[in-house]
């Protein structure tokens, strides 16, 4: 049995890894180096505690109120495009409490074993920088703190080994001496982790290569319909044959599927980030600035800032004002922060978003030998191992694939 995986990000590499472990012959195709897009440009969090759908009660109305702010953390760039408008209307329908809670349970179940799977990868020789320790979330709005505490209570019931605690002002003063007076309180989770996402994708690519996964990099893959039951992959003029094709091309998934007149409900969600130098007095464990939607990740050689969510199509240009909102949010949470030795340069990454905030994992209804693995939003690294394992189950039939209906490509 042979499978071609289109996409060498965290999801595609994880799929290839588990497929190869299942005895499948695998070829990975990508025009870019492994992990060079959003798989490396993200906060690097493995966070069962934050595995929640983006569409939540009040999210889109808040985005509309922020549309006039050039540095807002959540924004929508209007497009006169029927597909985009249909996507946003579908997302709006999912911004209800009932649908949010249903999605939260699916993501929690997907996340339940992700830490164990990362440990198993490391034991198998996948090398990457990883950190354990608490994740502290800071809230200026006490109502938002209470709402997220209720989500954590649900997560604690669904995820083995996960726990959390509330932090009042006195707790925060002990943990973070320079916290600003406007911070109402915090939540701290135990059972989350952080990692260097670039090291993870490099380590996973190296592990795949050791297991004789073939890499075809530097050229775009196109799908070619051979018959009603057969699709081949064309790379640089060469036709590759396989029993299954896995499309894990992130926000570019629909560009690949268009070759066979297929598509899924997907839009790009643009994020920004900075890599700042490690300095005395800087953070020692991950922080989340809740209202600003900023993730801060201390790593061995840098402190990573990541955040924002912008809907506006596939656009990798950097808006320095939008990116700057990440750093300008600091004074409202901290009275003091280490001075920067030089102005930092931002980076950007495009996250694949679905209308309900759940990934798409599974076969296309009209093309069952083509499987899709995308739409993980900000959880691509966090959910990469369980997604890869699910894809391997679906391809090989070794185990019944879980969550099939909730993650199906045609659920919208």
Count of helix runs: 11
What is the C-level CATH assignment of the domain at 48-81 and 129-192 and 267-353? Alpha Beta
Look at the structure and name the CATH superfamily of the domain at 48-81 and 129-192 and 267-353: D-Amino Acid Oxidase, subunit A, domain 2
Question: In the CATH scheme, what's the topology name of the domain at 48-81 and 129-192 and 267-353?
Answer: D-Amino Acid Oxidase, Chain A, domain 2
Q: Please give the CATH architecture of the domain at 48-81 and 129-192 and 267-353.
A: 2-Layer Sandwich
What share of residues is helical? 25-40%
Mean pLDDT: 91
The counted number of beta strands is 21
Largest sheet data = 9 strands, mixed
Low-pLDDT runs of 5+ residues are: none
Which terms summarize this structure?
globular, 412 residues, 26% strand, nine-stranded mixed beta sheet, D-Amino Acid Oxidase, Chain A, domain 2, 21 strands, six-stranded mixed beta sheet, alpha/beta
Would you give an account of this structure?
The chain is α/β, with parallel strands linked by helices and 412 residues long. It has a domain at 48-81 and 129-192 and 267-353: D-Amino Acid Oxidase, Chain A, domain 2 (2-Layer Sandwich). The chain has 11 helices and 21 strands. The chain has helices spanning 10-21, 59-65, 82-93, 97-111, 114-123, 142-158, 169-175, 197-210, 253-257, 320-328, 384-396, and strands at residues 2-6, 25-30, 45-46, 74-76, 130-132, 135-139, 163-167, 185-190, 193-195, 214-217, 221-227, 230-235, 238-240, 244-247, 267-276, 287-289, 294-298, 303-311, 347-353, 360-364, 367-374. Strands 4, 6, 7, 8, 15, 16, 17, 18 and 19 form a 9-stranded mixed sheet that branches. Helix 1 runs parallel beside helix 8, helix 1 (10-21) packs across helix 11 and helix 4 packs across helix 6 (142-158). The radius of gyration is 21 Å and the shape is globular. The relative contact order is 0.22. The mean pLDDT is 91.
């Amino acid at each position: 049995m042979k499978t071609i995986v289109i996409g060498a990000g965290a999801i595609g590499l994880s799929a290839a890894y588990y497929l190869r472990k299942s005895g499948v012959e695998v070829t990975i195709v990508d025009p870019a180096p492994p992990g060079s897009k959003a798989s490396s440009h993200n906060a690097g969090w493995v966070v069962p505690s934050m595995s929640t759908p983006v569409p939540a009660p009040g999210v889109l109305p808040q985005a509309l109120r922020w549309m006039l702010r050039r540095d807002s953390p959540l924004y929508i760039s209007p497009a006169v495009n029927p597909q985009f408008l249909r996507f946003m209307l579908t997302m709006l329908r999912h911004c209800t409490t009932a649908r949010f809670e249903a999605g939260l349970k699916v993501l929690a179940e997907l996340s339940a074993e992700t830490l164990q799977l990362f440990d198993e990868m490391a034991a198998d020789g996948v090398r990457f920088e990883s950190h354990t320790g608490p994740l502290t979330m800071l809230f200026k709005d006490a109502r938002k703190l209470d709402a997220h505490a209720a989500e954590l209570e649900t997560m604690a019931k669904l995820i083995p080994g996960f726990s959390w605690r509330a932090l009042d002002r006195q707790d925060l003063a002990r943990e973070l001496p320079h916290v600003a007076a406007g911070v109402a309180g915090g939540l701290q989770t135990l059972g989350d982790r952080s990692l260097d996402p670039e090291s993870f994708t490099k380590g996973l690519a190296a592990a795949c290569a050791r297991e004789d996964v073939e890499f075809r990099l530097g050229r775009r893959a196109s799908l070619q319909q051979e018959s009603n039951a057969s699709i081949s992959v064309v790379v640089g003029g060469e036709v590759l044959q396989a029993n299954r094709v896995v499309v894990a091309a992130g926000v570019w998934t629909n560009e690949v599927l268009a070759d066979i007149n297929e598509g899924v409900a997907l839009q790009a969600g643009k994020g920004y980030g900075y890599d700042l130098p490690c300095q005395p007095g800087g953070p020692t464990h991950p922080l989340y600035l809740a209202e600003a939607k900023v993730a801060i990740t201390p790593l061995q050689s840098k402190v990573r800032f990541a955040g924002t969510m912008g809907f506006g199509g596939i656009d990798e240009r950097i808006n320095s004002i939008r990116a700057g909102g990440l750093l300008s949010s600091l004074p409202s949470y901290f009275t003091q922060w280490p001075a920067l030795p030089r102005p930092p340069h931002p980076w950007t990454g495009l996250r694949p978003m679905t209308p309900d905030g759940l990934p798409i994992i599974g076969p296309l209804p009209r093309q069952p030998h083509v499987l899709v693995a995308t739409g993980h939003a900000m959880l691509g690294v966090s959910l990469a191992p369980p997604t890869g394992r699910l894809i391997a189950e679906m391809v090989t039939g070794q185990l019944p694939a879980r969550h099939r209906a909730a993650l199906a490509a045609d659920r919208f």
